[in-house]
TrEMBL record:
Protein name: Seven TM Receptor
Transmembrane segments: 35-55, 61-81, 93-113, 135-160, 181-200, 245-267, 295-320, 332-353
Origin organism lineage: Eukaryota, Metazoa, Ecdysozoa, Nematoda, Chromadorea
Domain of life: Eukaryota
Pfam families: 7TM_GPCR_Str
Keyword DNA repair: no
Organism the protein comes from: Caenorhabditis remanei (Caenorhabditis vulgaris)
Keyword Membrane assigned: yes
Chain segments annotated as coiled-coil in the UniProt record: none
Length: 388
């Protein structure tokens, strides 16, 4: 089989929008390659079309799911949870409240994105605030900042848990006045990302002309009427557009900083949990391990839902011109997927930290049918006998 590369583009005709491919270099087995390409491109088209059509209903579903799960979590944490230290309790409360604001703001901002060859356009699909473009511009900037704020709070929790295990005197500084310090760090991280997007990626004549046809064909939108930011790191003659490149560099740096903190503290915590916790009580050892697992899940879920899927499309504008390929994808579906993160994270946390399961069961026990009450009481009474 000789080399073959797919170049993605849309053809518009009487049959509607159809993804097609153009051969690059040499062709291979026409029947097999065309059939495989057809299946792959058909699946891409279905995913993209469905995500665009149902993006807003899914976003609304994500918001209401977040509102319900996080409100329950906040209620249980404030009034019933006793084993979690006050400082860490304030962290999880801030994190859960941020999740509600993040989901609510997505309904207002309605962010979406499209990758086209060496460019990416980040824009708003909000059609009921189009008369206020300045507000929508602020809305999608704030939405972009929210993700860094959330990731920064996770990084702070890792630092706090690490200090709790090995340097308790430093962990105590996260309470009191320290709360305003770590909240400020989270906000500054988000502001750096959102501010760089605002400063380095405003639309200009070249970026608008490059993306005009794509927005018109794929979304039936006039680019001049859309609130947008555009990332096109290379000009038509191949020269570097330093403003757009600066945003990519700043974004990678601030994102990498959070992951460096998370990975370093995570590795150190795992080492400590394996060696030093044997000297502590069984209850405290189990609680620390539960907190560690919850933090790992909090990191892995957004990484899998957003960072890894979006990375190829953020890097794409930098490398596509050198690879001899073309891209034309509706990448905004990743924001739709990300709206599911807050409720999934909250549910995972309550399942991992056993006190939440016990408290939740005690709260709902009065309204449970009698048969379920008996079985739950039996499981609670027999549970400790199997604890190792």
């Amino acid at each position: 089989m000789s080399g073959y590369c797919l170049s993605f583009s849309k053809v518009h005709g009487a049959q509607g929008n159809v993804w097609c491919t153009r051969p690059y270099k040499k062709e291979i087995s026409p029947q097999k390659s065309q059939f495989g390409s057809f299946l792959f491109l058909l699946s891409c088209e279905l995913v993209m079309a469905l995500s665009f059509k149902f993006a807003y209903p899914l976003t609304q579903f994500g918001f209401f799911s977040t509102l319900i799960t996080n409100t329950i979590f906040i209620y249980l944490t404030i009034f019933y949870i006793k084993k979690i230290p006050d400082t860490y309790k304030s962290m999880v409360l801030v994190f859960s409240s941020t999740g509600i604001m993040f989901s609510a703001w997505e309904i207002i901002a309605r962010p979406f994105a499209h990758s086209y060859n060496k460019g990416l356009v980040y824009f708003s699909l909000n059609d009921w605030l189009y008369e206020f473009p300045e507000f929508l511009q602020f809305a999608i900037i704030l939405y972009a900042s929210f993700y860094l704020v959330i990731l920064a709070i996770i990084a702070i929790q890792f630092v706090f848990r690490y200090f709790t295990l090995c340097r308790p005197h430093l962990a105590r500084k996260f309470g009191g006045v320290g709360v305003s310090v770590w909240i400020s760090y989270s906000l500054v991280s988000g502001a750096i990302y959102g501010g760089s997007l605002y400063l380095f990626c405003p639309p200009d004549s070249y970026s608008d002309s490059y993306m005009r046809e794509v927005l018109s064909d794929s979304y039936n939108l006039k680019i001049a009427e859309v609130t947008r930011f555009l990332i096109i790191p290379y000009a038509e003659n191949g020269s570097v557009r330093w403003n757009n490149l600066s945003f990519l560099l700043v974004g990678v740096m601030i994102l990498s900083l959070q992951y460096v903190i998370i990975v370093y503290c995570g590795v150190r915590m795992h080492t400590i949990l394996q060696k030093e916790l044997s000297q502590q009580s069984l209850v405290n050892r189990k609680l620390q391990k539960q907190f560690f697992r919850a933090l790992v899940v909090q990191t892995i879920v957004p990484t899998l839902l957003f960072v890894l899927p979006i990375a190829p499309f953020l890097i794409g504008p930098l490398v596509v011109p050198f690879l001899g390929i073309e891209m034309n994808f509706q990448t905004g579906w990743m924001y739709v997927i990300l709206c599911l993160y807050p409720p999934l994270d909250t549910i995972a946390f309550m399942l991992i930290v056993s006190e939440y399961k016990k408290v939740a069961l005690n709260v709902v026990k009065p309204i449970l049918p009698k048969r379920i009450k008996i079985s739950s009481e039996i499981s609670q009474s027999t549970g400790p006998a199997f604890t190792k």
